[in-house]
């Protein structure tokens, strides 16, 4: 069976955009409004010759934003459990939010292998956010732009040890 990567992160950071880029089909719904991806999507990802199963989660999007325990018990938990590595996406332009910090805490408590990526980093826009993201405790984030296809080689390198 193919190794599995679960894309994790709060709404609107670009999880589905990255999924679509890696899978190459429009299997995941992308929308400006947070919460649009209703279901978990799976596909076969291709990244510089590397092949793996990828899960686009929306588990932090559907439930009452005030109810953290509720959010944590969604499909996201299941996806991380069955994944070889969690690809934790933050928005390099927005910087770290309280929900990013909650997700980071939860990933740590789940003891999941984590690769941190700061998306929307095209054109050096994400440098401040990327520095901020180091405080999440998963090391230096990989700077990517899912929309523009930047940082692919760095993402490949970061995932390689786990898949
Ligand atoms: P999700 O909620 O995490 O799945 O996020 P989406 O993939 O639905 O994307 C949310 C919004 O961010 C959309 O408007 C995307 O076009 C935009 N977006 C995604 N990736 C990038 C990127 O690399 N750069 C920029 N500037 N915007 C992006
Ligand atoms: Mg989505």
UniProtKB/TrEMBL annotation:
Chain residues that bind GTP 1: 9-16, 56-60, 119-122
Residues of the EngA-type G domain: 3-163
Source organism superkingdom: Bacteria
UniProt family annotation: Belongs to the TRAFAC class TrmE-Era-EngA-EngB-Septin-like GTPase superfamily. EngA (Der) GTPase family.
Function: GTPase that plays an essential role in the late steps of ribosome biogenesis.
Assembly and oligomerization: Associates with the 50S ribosomal subunit.
Protein name per UniProt: GTPase Der
Organism, scientific name: Stakelama tenebrarum
Positions spanned in the full protein: 12 to 174 of 467
